């Protein structure tokens, strides 16, 4: 009986923590089945594969590139020591000159986040350096991440 009582508070916290959450969780880790690139590919229809950081190079001549965010476009993060495969997220909407909301998977292990703030902190206001909302602290993360820019989810041939 004492064993049940010992774990009761933990069980209540888990149940209460799940109420009203705007996030989807998975049992995945950074290297698990939930990854940003397949998530973005499925949501946008982009015909790109491989690591997220390789999408910028792969998309040259196939999809438009820009440094101005628009809904539906894909923000491509460069590979770094902290994000070795890069990262991709989908622009949901722009809320100011330097802040957008994105949807993305696995920024936090095993999670799909929607309407996450991303702020441009680049010196030239060109979205080549950003800070991303970090839910555990309910604030933008302290680290800035380099990006390539935005890929249009429309084929160049379709845009003409």
TrEMBL record:
It comes from the Bacteria. Residues 11-131 form the Peptidase C51 domain. It holds the Pfam family CHAP. This is Peptidase C51 domain-containing protein. It comes from Gluconobacter roseus NBRC 3990.
